[in-house]
User: Fold DUF427-domain-containing protein from Polyporus arcularius HHB13444.
Amino acid sequence: MAMAALKFPFTQLPHIESSPKRVRVFFGGEYIVDTTDALLVWLKPNYPYYFFKTKDVPQKYLVDAFQSQKHHIYDIVVGNRRAEAAATLYHDDELDGLIQIEFSEMDAWFEEDEQIFVHPKDPYKRVDVLHSSRHVRVEVNGVEVANTTRPRLLFETSLPIRYYIPKTDCKLELLAPSESSTQCPYKGIASYYNVHLPTGEVVEDIVWWYRTPQLECAEIKGCAAFYNEKVDIYIDGELQPRPESPWASKRASAVVPV
Assistant:
């Protein structure tokens, strides 16, 4: 039996809120945005994006690329640096007159004086890591790959519980490093393992770990987590239902908040 689909705080999208933070965007050696009037915009339920009013994005950095009925796309140009199609001016309903800048195309983003990564953190999301003595076993296609009584349980709003297991309690002989990597604004940069089963079957990218997690999730450092959606996890001897989530049928992509 599958778990119920995960719920998000907003049913009506886009959802727009003012941000109380000073936000700066750095590109090509200059801060092209420096404002205390940024907006958090949820275009999809998972997390927000920063949008800016036109007054906060100097026209001198914007070079026409193309436009449609609802959007005006600009390259961002600073000196000899150009980020193609990196800014979008909306001409559509609630977003009319607002500019979105592609996060990954910029050199750095700052909230106040702290650099942020991947995307803005969701003010409605909380992440907690708790030590536990619950007995956690993980099987992949009937083969035990982890067994521990000292897991770290990571609770993140709107996502399944993730069970982080010390590597010494994993069958490391079955894990082979993958070339995949993802980023999370709450946890940091994740590396992945493929599981090599005794049958010769290889299950790709279903295990991840953080070498140097963000401070708020420091307790998961060096521990491995398995996609609940794709493995069998037993808690105190009871098989857990596989949750429904955006990763239930997908492999890891370049940026996945896990």
Remarks:
- The domain at 15-116 is CATH 2.170.150.40 (Metal Binding Protein, Guanine Nucleotide Exchange Factor; Chain A).
- The first strand starts at residue 15 and ends at 18.
